[in-house]
Amino acid sequence: MAFELFDKRKPGLKELEKLSKRMSRKFKVDKTWIKIGHKQRALQYFSITDTILITSRAIFPIEHLLHEFAHHIVYHKHYYRTGPHRKPFQKTLWKLVMWYYKGNPEKYNWVNEYPRVAAYGFKRLSGLNKRRANLAGLN
């Protein structure tokens, strides 16, 4: 079941952990730990401890969690036989975004992604919009 857990306020650790557990069940991977860092600026996935670090300064903590959780899935399914933002990661992030935003990937902030990931997201959005236009008889 896709959902949006949060309103406009910034989600806390409990909400992020709840989302992480749901993603673990949905995508059939081990549970990951979520930690909120107060001094760090970085967002990171640590594969050795299955921990996602999200800074308390994060503007889009949900989107950061989706991004880092995609790393978690890729690590467990591909064991990083690929670069960190290559096709398996991009496809995994797309699936997470489609699931979380109930099939509306336009809601994800693709502009703030790494260039390679953003290009993939915009390409998929373009194809999705063309298919939707065809179904609506606009083309």
Chart the SSEs and their pairings.
Layout: H1 13-26, E1 33-37, E2 44-46, E3 51-55, H2 61-78, H3 87-100, H4 115-135
Describe this structure in words.
- The protein is mainly α.
- It has one domain: 2-Layer Sandwich (Zincin-like).
- The protein is 48% helix and 9% strand.
- It is built from 4 helices and 3 strands.
- It has a 3-stranded mixed beta sheet, with helices on one face.
- β2 and β3 form a beta hairpin.
- α2 (61-78) crosses α3 (87-100).
- The chain is globular, with a radius of gyration of 15 Å.
- The termini are far apart.
Defining key terms:
139 residues; mainly alpha; Zincin-like; three-stranded mixed beta sheet; 4 helices; globular
Summarize the structure.
The protein has about 140 residues and is mainly alpha-helical. The protein has helices at about 15-25, 60-80, 85-100, 115-135, and strands spanning about 35, 45, 50-55.
Radius of gyration: 15 Å
Give the amount of beta strand, in percent. Answer: 5-15%
Rounded mean pLDDT score: 87
Q: What name does the CATH topology carry?
A: Zincin-like
Count the E strands. 3
| Order of helical and strand elements | HEEEHHH
Total number of domains: 1
**How would you write the strand order of the largest sheet?**
1-3-2
